[in-house]
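New to this. Please check both lines:
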Amino acid sequence: MSDPRISALQAEVPSLRLLTDPADLAHYGVDWTRRWTPAPMAVALPATIEEVQATMRWANAAGVAVVPSGGRTGLSGGAVAANGELVLSLQRMNRVVGFEPADRLLTVEAGIALEAVQEEARSHGLQYPVDFASRGSCSIGGNIATNAGGIRVVRYGNTREWVAGIRLVTATGELLDLNRGLVKNSSGYDLRHLAVASEGTLGIIVEATLRLTDPPPDTRVMLLALPSFEVLMEVFQALRARLPLEAFEFFTDRALHHVVAHGAQAPFDAAYPYYVVAEFACEGEAGEVQVLSAFEYCMEQGWVEDGVISHGDTQAAALWRLREGITESLAPHLPYKNDVSVRVSAMPGFLARTQALLASEYPQFEVVWFGHIGDGNLHINVLKPADMANADFVVECERVTRLLAETLAEYGGSISAEHGIGLVKKAYLGSTRSAAEIAVMRGIRRALDPAGILNPGKLFD
């Protein structure tokens, strides 16, 4: 520990676990963006709220910047520590604190993985319905800090809807107990919701009280092959009107190509340009009739050319793998990612405009589309050519992202649907938020972190 600040922190918090090995700094200093070289001063691994508080009191007094860290599965550079910051990882704070059956509330530490929360909920005969492919590695604290969405937003909403309380450690080491699981609480500002989607800039989320709900109904999964982009929203509206949808996801033939190359099984003998994975409640013979009727209706309209309906969990999992395996299959190609959203009603027009924009501006790149169309969220992945320098590739992609941001502003959309702003998207925040809104956000940030030590450079400078 050659840095005297590290020695000072260890002396201030003797029980705190600190890592300084270069391999650890490289591991904890980045998220999935991989666009910045990690350079944290050290990694702090507190085991208790008290250790988090003591660490923040020391950092505030010493003027040391702190980057909160969860599962680091983010895609916007929100957990990057590239300028000598102290990484504060909640990895060791991964315990279940308690369960209140009458309230259906589960309290957990922020470092617990989403999948562990889902399993704990099932052990009580309930469910925590927020879900996405990185469930095994992402943390609840990170989910809350970015208001993560996922594959079932069309039925259950985003993370925000399921957070009943948050314990937040401020930049000065104060512990705020926000809402405390209350259903009704009209006693002033709801600071709990302010902490949601704050990307670690307002405090360290150390504990969360989560709402649970009834276990999921029996469901089936349907994979549909579509002949064109234009019929996508027609299929969504038809299925939503006829089936109790749990999820509605789409992806392109290029996405399927990469997932199959990564080990998944091709679903059809023929190839089609677009695909939809839909999950829906289906109980008994009446449910079967309802499903077949909806499928046949879409076929009759010419919106669907082929399809398969799952029979059993194994087949359902295989169909979901075609959608959930996309991100992993694209990772070797170092994709530049756009995560955007508009209102569902604006989606047809926005899709047409965006498709034309990207076809015009990215003729030399492979573009892979997929997303949560049922809630207006579209993921656009631009794959880096193997012979192109990464810096040149990013410059070109950011040029087009500025055009995309202008289109989003016309449609009242957001440059970040569920991944946060972080470092990657802060240049485009003005396309989503007005100057007055950004000024208010800056003021809130200064009030909670007057020294500016919490995740500096993220969201805005």
The domain at 219-327 is CATH 3.30.70.2190 (Alpha-Beta Plaits). The mean pLDDT is 94.
